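Can you give me the bound-state structure? Components:
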Amino acid sequence: MDTQQSVSTDADGQEICDSGALTERGLGQRFRVDWYGEEREAFAVRFGGKVYAYLNSCAHIPIELDYQPGDFFDLSHNFLVCATHGAYYAPESGLCLGGPCPGRRLESVPVAERAGKIYWLSPATGQDGWPD
Ligand code: FES
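Here's the bound-state model for the whole set.
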């Protein structure tokens, strides 16, 4: 992957934060997305060195997951957890592994990490649509 490519913040990608702001299994970064014409809350976390992002909406009841702003991981820091009823999710897939909604998923937000910054991409563009 070309990490030196300059990236604009046009329709292909909107900056979330600097790469350094997301530490491994640490606090997440909240941000807003234009999601098919609707403004939605979302968040990004780093897990296994990669950045993953999801709409901040539990698959059980559509309310925000974090207990404190940005606090998305459970105590083991192995799972994303909903503060309301304890649904826990695989950070790399958003799949609910336990709690009140097993088998459901968080809605994934496409992201890219380039040149020390993290961007979210239009859901219509996705990872593959990033300009080369
Ligand atoms: S609202 Fe998230 S587990 Fe119930």
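A couple of observations. Residues 22-110 form a domain with the Rieske Iron-sulfur Protein fold (CATH 2.102.10.10). The CA atoms of residues 9 and 116 lie 14 Å apart.
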